[in-house]
Amino acid sequence: VEPELRTLLREKAEEVRLDGRIPGPVLRRSRRRRALTGVLAVTLAVGAVGGVFVGARLLSQETAPEPRGARPAGTPAGFYPFIYPETQEQLDATTAEVAQGSMPMWSDPRGAAVIYAVNELGWEMNHAEVSVRGDDPITAFITNPVFNEAAGAQADLRTAVYLAKVPGAQDPPVYAVLAAQAEDIELEPAGPDEEVGEERSLTIGGRVGFVPQGAKVELTVEWSWINDLGGRMVERASDSVVPDADGRFRFAPIADEQIGPSSLISVALVDGSGRTLAVTSSRLATPLAGQGEAHGSAPAQVGPPEQIPPPVAATRDRILDAAVAMDWAALRALIPERGFTFTYGGERDPIAYWQKLESRGHVPVIGDILPMVLGTEPASLRDTYIWPAPAAEDPAEWDAHDIDVLRQIHSEEDIRLFQEIGLYTGWRVGIERDGTWVFFVSGD
Amino acid sequence: MIRAEVALTKAEGGRLAELYRLHAPDAARLAYLLTGDRALAEDLVHEAFVRLFGRFRDLRNPDAFAAYLRTTIVNTARSHFRRRRVERAYIERVGPAQEAPAEPPDPTGRDEMWHALGRLSPRQRAAIVLRYYEDLSEGQTADVLGVPVGTVKSLVSRGLEKLRRELQRSE
């Protein structure tokens, strides 16, 4: 059979004649991918603290139908909030196939949860039990009775799978997984995203409610960056620990300067045979603290400044007064000790940094730029108010009004650049609802 | 203003076009032999190029682009089949709420062996195509498939045996 097989394969191969000219869509997708990875590279390297990070946490709201405020300042247009499908390209391919009438399970939250359980947790399809709650967003609780019984669990070990409709895929809809949260895994203090410090160190601990014989808790962290030659690198770190008698566990710190909002974190409870019983998993930027956050309401749009909450308005006014007066001490008093973003260049002291810029004479960052930015109209992303408002939107969606707002602080050339790279990288200010000033920064 | 240098330069675009011209036709043939579907093969090639170009500068040996592309094609095809398998299982479980479109029939329809090849498992088919079309050694095939050499031997042996049985049955 082998000689005939070789002949057949050659003949069949000869039937395929592909045009050697690269199709436009392939070239464009390559361009987008290159642009996305380039922007992501810079943003990931700096996005772990401060306002950018706080803003990035809200990106799960991108799935909400709110037209404004879908993307916060300093985050890339291509930020991918879902954990499954794993990449934007895979999601695009899935969406296209669903639109063509194929892959119907993606239009059914139950089906999407099952396919997540099969492909990501390694469960047999017939072992996955699913119950669905809510309309949109949707929580699907998945459990594996076979594994539960083998592990000696007295009650179902359930994982809540948070699903959201993919924007733009309406008829039929497509559901993707924003995050998964095991009911029996508590992460301390509130979720892995709270554990990223200024040293880009990730320390995760917690407690499992049920510890099967021989069980372990496994941690996987995946992050990516662009190397000096422009190539995308993906790194994974993993660890496993045996929880103590009370179910408590703590992993060794994972430190990497590239850990940022897009990093994917998974903490899984596995039995003595290595089978996954439950998992908590999300992008670092995606809230994991239960339904309150995963089901958060759409970001509210704010209009005139008089609608800003009093604590936010008070902080804005104090910043303005100090900036116009160049009162460095007053500015310093407004800056929180931790969690304030002012540069991506490794500087430690915002006041010293701004003074250095001002002293150079060509970056009037405090005297002119800061008042100009705060003089524009803000947007809000849940608990963070951002100036200027277009910084919270995808440049592709800027309308004439947004452009007018930006013209108050940017040249036409700058605005075109933002639109070209799909990212607002200009100066922006962020103040949280309680009046905490969280960022004043530019660049990406 | 920090200007992120993220756009594909003209030189890079030209490089991609050149790589496509050199390698895409062969890649499409391989993808077709792996899937038996011309349209799907073309899609897989496009997907593979988009994926690979993002990593091209990062490849340890840029001269080995064809080898990287071959592996990417095989992996992309494997992902496709895996997704299809889960979809079929799901439909069997919950009932066909919406029929998936049937795979387009092989337009030639002339060769029993070709049909028999299409009835092999995706891994058996990949192993046979890599061994008998790409003329890879067992070790090279193992590298592409990401499996031990022993698994390659088993896949090829069982695949050939199944082909023989199918052909005998049709005679």
Commentary on this structure:
- The complex is a heterodimer of chains A (444) and B (171).
- Chain A contains 13 helices and 17 strands.
- Chain A has 444 residues and is an alpha+beta fold.
- In chain A, β3 (159-170) and β4 form a beta hairpin.
- In chain A, α8 runs antiparallel to α9 and α8 runs antiparallel to α11 (365-374).
- The longest helix of chain A is centred in the N-terminal third of the chain and has 23 residues, at 24-46.
- Chain A is globular, with a radius of gyration of 24 Å.
- Chain A starts with a helix and ends with a strand.
- Chain B is mainly alpha-helical.
- In chain B, 71% of the residues lie in helices and 0% in strands.
- Chain B has 7 helices and no strands.
- Chain B has helices at 10-35, 38-55, 65-94, 112-118, 122-132, 138-145, 149-170.
- In chain B, α1 (10-35) runs antiparallel to α2 (38-55).
- Classes of the chains: A alpha+beta (444), B mainly alpha (171).
- Chains A and B meet through α1, α2, α5 and α13 of A and α1, α2, α3, α4 and α5 of B.
What layout of secondary structure does this protein have?
The complex is a heterodimer of chains A (444) and B (171).
Chain A: H1 2-14, H2 24-46, H3 50-56, H4 88-99, H5 109-121, E1 129-133, E2 138-143, H6 145-151, E3 159-170, E4 173-182, E5 185-188, E6 201-202, E7 205-208, E8 216-226, E9 232-241, E10 248-250, E11 254-255, E12 264-270, E13 276-283, H7 291-294, H8 310-325, H9 328-334, H10 350-360, H11 365-374, E14 379-381, E15 384-387, H12 400-407, H13 412-421, E16 428-432, E17 437-441
Helix pairs in contact in A: 8-9, 8-11
Chain B: H1 10-35, H2 38-55, H3 65-94, H4 112-118, H5 122-132, H6 138-145, H7 149-170
